[in-house]
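Take a sample.
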Amino acid sequence: MGQAAEVFLGILTAMGGFVEIGELVFTLTAGTRFGYQLLWVCVLGTVGIMAYCEMAGRVAAVRGRPVFSLVRERAGFAAGGVTLVASLVVSLLTCAAEIGGIALLWQLVSDGPYRFFVLLAFVAFAVIVWVLPFQWIERVYGLGGLMMIVFAVTLIKIGPDWGEVAQGLVPRAAPSSGSARDTLLYAYVAVALMSSIMLPYETYFYASGGIEDDWKPKDVTLNRVVVLVGFALGALLAMALIGLGADFFAPHRIDPQAPATAALAASDALGRAGLALALGGMFFAFGGAAIETCLSGAYNLAQFAGWPWGKHLPQRATPRFTLAWIVLLLLAALLVVTGIDPVQVVEYSIVASVVVLPLSYFPLLMVAKDRRIMGRHANGWLSNALGWFYLVLVTLAALAALPLFFLTHQGQG
């Protein structure tokens, strides 16, 4: 399949950030509550994650350095340790939410016991990560996640008001209703939506994936293509979900909090084929995100500690890395076996991830713009401008996230 197959790394990473369970909930919620008014946040967040993932992939290709190696080097052991712990918490919570989402999907189609499906998901993903090479994980889950395109097809068939879509691309500081309660809720959903798009584990996984795929300086252009294709596709799907929230769920007065609820729109518009594609796409998107987050946590821990790591190495050569992803996957499964609502876990993971964003992105920006390290592959003026702009933006989001979380009663208004 050659270099074209590398695009699946971008698709897998984008699916894990744009249409995993957290993004699914927040995009549908944004559309249901505010119509197309938060569409601009998708565009804003997409440009940001593209900018930082491109930097991460470029550093990985040119220097062979993953993100958490840079975090420890640039931030120091203490600050790097705080970032590591926070990133592990985010990876654990997100992985738990994805496993819970998979169990809910299986329960929907078979009406079996939820806890059994949680344990089955743990066993299935443990076997998949153990057995499949990294490249096949990319291809299977990247290709399977493409079934989520059914949501874009569904929106087109419903027929959105393209004038409202265009207006939604224009940034606004407050919703059209203008009430204080709605303004706070609008701000919370905007921060959560942007943060769920710019989840830090996407950058960790993407850079580590580039090293797993043995990228070299000659692959810098390929890295840009992978980022543009993968994340543009993810953004289009996220925007389509906002549209479904506005044009299907809001008119039918359906609260799309349960992950499988999203499939109702596809089923209504496209019948059984739409339902099958929607459920299949969500399975691969949630499953890919579960694998992505458990590997991301293990990557971070191994890179920070200086252990041998990577799926490209024999497991006997990476015992601590292998144990790390198994333990993280097991803890995630045990967390949702308790019966905690996966959607509630999503809320906590998003808030936790916002705090990690500035700590993760600052060291990456410092290395990517350093010509002594990167030579002719250092950031140009556009990458630097975007890097600094989004660093300030995610820092402000980090400061606002917790107050908004409590003021809106966890987004309930």
In short: Residues 158 and 269 are 7 Å apart (CA to CA).
